[in-house]
Amino acid sequence: MRFDNPAWQQAPLRTGLRVLKSLVRKRIGPLRTVRVPYDDGRTSIYADLGTPMGLLLYRYGNRDVDIELAKKLLSPGDVFVDGGANVGLFTLAAAARVGAAGKVIAFEPGRDVRQRLTQNVALNHMTQIEVSAFALSSAPGEASFRTFDVAGAGLNHLGPSDGEAGSVELVKLTTLDAAIGAADRRRLTVMKLDLEGAEHAALQGASEILRDVRPHLIIEVEASHLARMGSSVADVGGLLLSHGYQFFLARQADGREVSLSRIRDLQAPKSGPNVFATTDPARVQSRGVRIS
Predict the structure, then answer these.
(1) 23 with 67, same domain?
(2) In this predicted model, what pLDDT tens digit does every residue of 207-254 receive, in sequence order?
(3) Which residues contact 138 (CB under 8 A, 6 or more apart)?
């Protein structure tokens, strides 16, 4: 249990009851998966109470600063790319923001977790979401993809994995330049990449988009994961710097306000793995995001 979660202060009785109910429901197969409100009720999502994420969603709801930042930067009609969509936390929130006239392209190569993603998309009747089974990389092809059970699906990854648990699937690879057509590029505003070490490869496969479109990026930059794929934080930073990107850490005060603090050294320790990168800080500020 997470007694530091704001839900305990905001609604202690309701939160306590949800915790007690979750302890019972997660042990009863037919009751383990439950539909819960998500994104302040704009959408719904299936919470699997046998997983840490499902318990979080059911007990407390989910408020993530990077998701809130993405929503700030998106407008109706925009295109959002979700690389490593998992069950759809970013996908659903972005789809609600861009609306029926917009589009979300969600890449999720893991078969089981992708099934859960498509179930969440169907639950919300969101035709603006396109789910892709491709893994993002620097070139098209095929590769082994290590998958874990649903509780560990956020750790699914490409690349060497000797001695790890889980199982291996053969997945198809694509590049962002190949997967995002001209019509979608014209409206592409934000890309999120959480690829467990394949972020540098995905950026290498997005040279045209980075050069011509320059979308805002929310990207995981985790040294150990990158090293597993033969790259580094310096590789990611150098590639993005060559396209004029600047780096920031997203913060949230009072549970609502999103702000950014500048990262001078991408390799310096930071509070979380995600980095926000943009070529146009003024455009970000115009969306009501404070930069310090």
Answers:
(1) no
(2) 999 999 999 999 999 999 999 999 999 999 999 999 999 999 999 876
(3) 175, 201, 202, 204, 205
